[in-house]
Write a structure and sequence with these properties.
Length: about 220
């Protein structure tokens, strides 16, 4: 079904009216290399994940995705460094339109229901460890380093559809009618709304110091 002209107009007006100024705040702190069991790992903590503009977008019902990637690189003097291994994870955050609570879904983990954005922020900034490769698999005497990259990503059609699935379940349980589907909008329109909402990508990158297998 094609989206109605009124839905498109309403979405554009709302986006233009509520768009806050851009602020890039997310940071990676306390990054350090350690041994975790028989693996080399990175211990890290992200801070200021929910900048004022991200908070404003979430309060208005726009979902957000926090993407974390950790790359392990091998130093090759006189040549390009070699990517050895990558670990990735995603966390999706959205507001429940019926309860005004926030739902946080960590990839591979349970769905958490949190009362407010302060609780969401505390959950997102908990210290974490990311396992990389077995220490025994690292080449002896060769330097390595890790690069941590965090993105707070704008809404996508997939994000919207997932949120609407949650809302649909809430609507069935409560007997209330569900909202109209913004996911019916063309993908280019969703991209425009993401920009208008102020929820463009916010990124942070951290590079560790060099280390070798012998350091463990």
């Amino acid at each position: 079904m094609r989206p109605s002209l009124s839905l498109i107009r309403l979405a554009l007006v709302v986006g233009l009216t509520l768009a806050p100024a851009a602020v890039h705040a997310v940071e990676v702190r306390d990054g350090r290399i350690l041994r975790f069991g028989d693996h080399a790992a990175v211990a890290l903590r992200t801070t200021s994940v929910l900048s004022p503009r991200v908070r404003g977008s979430l309060e208005r019902g726009m979902p957000a995705t926090v993407h974390l990637s950790v790359d392990l690189w091998r130093v090759r003097p006189g040549w390009f460094d070699q990517l050895v291994h990558t670990e990735q994870s995603e966390i999706r955050v959205a507001r429940d339109a019926w309860s005004d609570e926030f739902q946080l879904h960590r990839e591979g983990g349970p769905l958490l229901v949190l009362l407010d954005l302060d609780e969401v922020e505390r959950e997102l900034t908990r210290p974490t460890r990311v396992r990389l490769v077995p220490v025994a698999a690292m080449m002896a005497g060769v330097q390595h380093y890790a690069i941590v990259h965090v993105e707070v990503k704008p809404l996508t059609v997939e994000d919207i559809e997932e949120v609407e699935a949650w809302l649909s379940g809430e609507a069935k349980r409560s007997g209330k009618p569900g909202p109209g589907s913004i996911a019916r909008l063309p993908r280019y329109m969703v991209g425009i709304l993401a920009n208008l909402s102020g929820l463009g990508d916010e990124t942070a990158t951290y590079r560790s110091g060099a280390f070798t297998r012998e350091d463990f």
